[in-house]
């Protein structure tokens, strides 16, 4: 295996990547860095996002740039503003100990005047989106006549977004002698054609097979009736504690509706789609990156700029219209050496499409059964038990309170105390999934299945399920779980205030801050002296917790909690109010600390 130190990189760059914690080069880095540094050939690299390709081209580009010549020598084109900013950020961190190289981001959706002024001050390396770069060229605000290296990052994405013309115009404005390096996750016809037209005998590098997905991703498929898609999704999510995922939908309306329903059902989800303003998009992405949101429901286009390495899952609520997009979507998980799972929810008419995707991936889908109610409860219980196992009591924080605890619980046996503590968190799952029916649809004999699953006989539709014949693939607006009488029965939301006088509050502390339900109770009592407050359900998640109390008490508790710190963190509590209209959410929903 190659080592960064043997690749010909300068000590300044080696020092920077060591500080970034890069120990071993990724496959694309092992292949690209030596070629970029030591040969003059053009290069085509098939590499997914998240494989370390920014460093693969960025490190040599920084090394070869002559900072003493004040001219633009490198141009990197990429599909989105977010990626553009990410690349500049990465380049700047690689160049931390390299003197004098100036980089500049040029992208759409931001006032052009400022970027024109920045361009006039000059930059050695420009990182740009094709639309804005083309605009700059038309306005004669950019001089690319001395460019020596052009990098096309995510070339297939730029094509998909309709930037072919702009890319060609830009490539026409750089000297013929410039070296071109093209990076793409897939190799559709137009990308191959562009490589043929603008590159000379390029060196081809394959990191993973052509058009195939990453090896760190498991591909799983759940076959359900279209009307059960939403309930199946919730089951899958509920049986996966720790899930941090993007759910892909095909249209803006679907993302809004699904995010809206998930929120209503107690999940921390928001929509990301192309009709949002840049500020709204940034806000949602920021909340997702900071893990205030557990789930992002996105369209293909909107998710393009999002770079998050820790996603545990990508879920395809609908298969993409173009099978090639599947690789892009699923490539958002299993990044930077982590394992990830790509989950597809299909109905029987989509089996053909699934096989096409399998052929592209050169991998079969693992056919999974939608978890039963009992499966969900078992995984939640295991999660709770594991959390209990990991609670550290050794430091004696609880000792001063033991006499009170002993006194109050004296009449209960050990077994009874255990049961009650477990039920604090577990009860809602037992209730939600009581009598939950089998949701698995019959799977035909295919490469990904081959066996009949699910017993539909006697399967009863649970109350509160979203269902409306004819609008099969999306949650129904007339969601019956809105009605309190039915919402109380069957597969009802995981967490939702049941009474208008009960407020649901969200606190920015969770398991990550070692918060447990008793801690939360103690915290609330500490912040609000006086008679003890009555708490409803408490739900602790990784990054935040939720609890119920009367609205009257909530008005008193919120300002008190918002003044204190816990485990070195400023406490932020917000009331989870009625759902704002889809698409307008998060701004008012995000944790905010007035005057803090
Ligand atoms: P990229 O594909 O360039 O977006 O990189 C994906 C992620 O992997 C980024 O967060 C990089 O910081 C990280 N990364 C890149 N190269 C390495 C490496 N050799 N070792 C560890 N992490 C890396």
Q: Would you mind describing this structure in some detail?
A:
The chain is α/β, with parallel strands linked by helices and 596 residues long. The protein folds into 4 domains: 4-206, 3-Layer(aba) Sandwich (Rossmann fold), CATH 3.40.50; 217-372, Rossmann fold, CATH 3.40.50; 378-390 and 401-432, no CATH class; 486-589, 2-Layer Sandwich (Alpha-Beta Plaits). It contains 21 helices and 20 strands. The strands form 4 sheets. The protein has a 7-stranded parallel sheet, with helices on both faces. β16 (538-540) and β17 form a beta hairpin. α3 (53-64) crosses α4 (81-94), α6 packs across α8 (164-173) and α16 crosses α18. The protein is globular and about 85 Å long. The two termini are 51 Å apart. The model is unreliable at 443-497 and 578-596 (pLDDT under 50). Adenosine monophosphate is lined by residues 22, 24-26, 29, 49-55, 309, 335-336.
Strand numbers in spatial order across the main sheet = 3-4-2-5-6-1-7
Structural category: alpha/beta
Largest sheet at a glance? 7 strands, parallel
> What is the number of independent domains?
4
Number-wise, the strands total 20
Total number of helical segments? 21
Bound compounds? adenosine monophosphate
Provide a concise account of the structure shown.
This protein is α/β, with parallel strands linked by helices and 596 residues long. 37% of the residues lie in helices and 14% in strands.
């Amino acid at each position: 295996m190659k080592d960064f130190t043997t690749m010909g990189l300068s000590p300044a760059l080696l020092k920077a990547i060591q500080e970034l914690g890069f120990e071993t080069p990724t496959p694309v880095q092992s292949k690209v860095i030596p070629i970029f540094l030591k040969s003059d050939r053009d290069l085509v690299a098939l590499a997914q996002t998240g494989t370390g390709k920014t460093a693969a081209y960025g490190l040599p580009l920084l090394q070869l740039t002559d900072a003493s010549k004040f001219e633009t020598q490198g141009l990197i084109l990429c599909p989105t503003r977010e990626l553009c900013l990410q690349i500049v950020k990465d380049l700047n961190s690689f160049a931390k100990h390299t003197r004098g190289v100036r980089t500049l981001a040029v992208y759409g959706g931001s006032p052009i005047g400022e970027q024109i002024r920045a361009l006039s001050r000059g930059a050695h390396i420009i990182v740009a989106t094709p639309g804005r770069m083309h605009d700059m060229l038309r306005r004669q605000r950019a001089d690319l006549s001395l460019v020596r290296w052009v990098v096309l990052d995510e070339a297939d994405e730029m094509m998909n977004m309709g930037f072919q013309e702009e890319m060609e115009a830009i490539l026409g404005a750089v000297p013929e002698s410039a070296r071109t390096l093209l990076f793409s996750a897939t190799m559709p016809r137009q990308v191959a054609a562009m490589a043929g037209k603008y590159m000379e005998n390029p060196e081809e590098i394959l990191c993973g097979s052509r058009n195939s997905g990453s090896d760190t991703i498991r591909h799983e498929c759940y076959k359900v009736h279209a009307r059960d898609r939403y309930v199946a999704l919730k089951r899958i999510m509920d049986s996966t504690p720790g899930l941090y995922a993007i759910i892909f939908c095909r249209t803006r309306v679907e993302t809004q509706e699904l995010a809206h329903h998930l929120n209503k059902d107690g999940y921390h989800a928001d929509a990301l789609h192309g009709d949002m303003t840049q500020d709204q998009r940034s806000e949602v992405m920021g909340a997702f990156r900071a893990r205030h949101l557990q789930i992002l429901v996105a369209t293909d286009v909107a998710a393009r700029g999002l770079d998050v390495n820790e996603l545990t899952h990508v879920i395809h609520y609908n298969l993409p219209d173009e099978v090639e997009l599947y690789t892009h979507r699923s490539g958002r998980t299993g990044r930077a050496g982590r394992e990830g799972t790509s989950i597809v929810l299909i109905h029987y008419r989509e089996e053909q499409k699934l096989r096409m995707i399998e052929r592209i991936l050169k991998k079969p889908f693992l056919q999974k059964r939608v978890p039963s109610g009992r499966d969900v409860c078992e995984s939640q219980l295991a999660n709770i038990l594991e959390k209990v196992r990991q609670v550290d009591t050794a430091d004696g924080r609880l000792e001063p309170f033991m006499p009170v605890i002993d006194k109050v619980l004296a009449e209960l046996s050990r077994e009874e105390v255990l049961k009650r503590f477990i039920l604090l968190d577990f009860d809602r799952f037992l209730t939600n999934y009581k009598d939950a029916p089998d949701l698995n649809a019959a799977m035909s004999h295919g490469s990904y299945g081959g066996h009949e699953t699910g017993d539909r006989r006697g399967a009863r539709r649970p109350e509160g399920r979203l269902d409306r014949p004819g609008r099969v693939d999306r949650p129904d607006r007339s969601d019956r779980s809105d009605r309190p009488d039915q919402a109380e029965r069957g597969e009802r939301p995981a967490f939702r205030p049941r009474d208008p006088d009960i407020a649901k509050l969200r606190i920015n502390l969770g398991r990550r801050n070692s918060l447990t339900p008793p801690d939360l109770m103690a915290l609330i009592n500490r912040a609000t002296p006086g008679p003890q407050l009555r708490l409803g359900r408490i739900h602790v998640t990784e990054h935040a917790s939720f609890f119920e109390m009367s609205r009257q008490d909530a008005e008193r508790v919120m300002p008190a909690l918002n003044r204190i710190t816990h485990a070195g963190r400023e406490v932020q509590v917000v009331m989870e109010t009625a759902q704002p209209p889809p698409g307008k959410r998060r701004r008012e929903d995000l944790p905010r600390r007035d005057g803090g």
